[in-house]
Amino acid sequence: MTDDTKLSADKVAAFLRQNPEFFQQRSDLLELMRLPDPRGPAVSLLERQAAILRERNQELRERLNGLIDVARENDQLFEHTRRLTLALLEARSTDKLLRQLLRSLEEEFRCDTVALLLHDREAKLLGEVRKQVRFVDPDDLPQPLAPLLRTGKAVCGVLRGEELKALFQDQAEQVRSAAVVPLEHNGRLGILAIGSRDAMHFRSSMGTLFITHIGQVLSRRLVDVSRPASPRQAQRA
After folding, report:
1. Does the keyword Phosphoprotein belong to this entry (predicted)?
2. Which of 178, 182, 181, 142 is nearest to 158 (CA)?
3. Any domain includes 10
């Protein structure tokens, strides 16, 4: 192609951009135009435009379906979070509080493993709940956890081996992704860690709205139930 031809083609392209209605009065030209198609023989301009529109519509449908799936997932998460929040608000002791938390995370949220590290060694826990909670002094947290807790915010994603070991101990090898939530309310209270065998379950790109909300409610309730109970509260517990 010579420079003159290229310049002429550029001028034609510029003219058509400025006059998109040009072919409306020259439909015979449209019928003569043939475009190469990588999927087969050359097709007319109208056929090519129709194919492009079909592809774009398919892409839009896929995007819409993706948004619908996300909306459904968020609705389900909201409902689980709502029920868990109400259960935590009704608990009148640390043992019942953590029992409700663990039951909900395992049964409703379908979590594969949960780790709770608390700083309050005076918390009265019984049975299986006591086995699932570790008491750790705030100044003696395992060093690998420092990067996760630096921002004081919930973290989701694939963790390093030493981080998983510090959180989940003998369950660490089966955890492929996790959510880690610092528990804080007027001071540090501990850490809630939720693990999944699915590496894509907790992604670094996912939002932390729901898990942060659970952590905030749990933190406030831990403080409330650790206070000395009044005679009336003791009767209700």
Report:
1. no
2. 178
3. no
Give pTM, 2 decimals.
Answer: 0.70
The C-alpha angle with vertex 6 and arms to 2 and 11, in degrees rounded to 5, equals 145
Q: What is the DSSP code string of 98-125? A: HHHHHHHHHHTS--SEEEEEES-TT---
Q: 188 Cβ partners below 8 Å, 6+ apart?
A: 119, 138, 182
Which residue do the tokens 């650790």 mark?
Answer: 226
- 209 in the same domain as 133: yes
Examine the domain organization and report whether 134 and 218 are in the same domain.
yes
pLDDT mean for each 10 residues of the chain (237 residues): 62 83 71 62 62 83 85 88 94 93 91 92 82 88 89 92 94 94 93 94 86 95 79 49
Residue 236, Cβ neighbours under 10 Å: how many?
A: 8
Question: DSSP string covering 173-184, please?
Answer: GG-SEEEEEEEE
> What φ, ψ does residue 180 adopt, rounded to 5°?
-120, 125
Domain residues for 42?
A: 27-90
- In this structure, the answer to whether residues 111 and 137 fall within a common structural domain is yes
Together in a domain, 80 and 99? no
Cα torsion for 164, 168, 173, 178, to the nearest 10°?
A: -60
- List, as own/partner pairs, every contact residues 169-174 make where C-beta atoms lie below 8 angstroms and the sequence separation is at least 24, other chains included: 169/115, 171/113, 171/115, 171/195, 174/112, 174/113
Residue 135 and residue 118 in contact, taking contact as beta carbons nearer than 8 Å: yes
CA distance 174 to 182: 22
Name the nearest CA neighbour of 197 among 224, 174, 217. 174
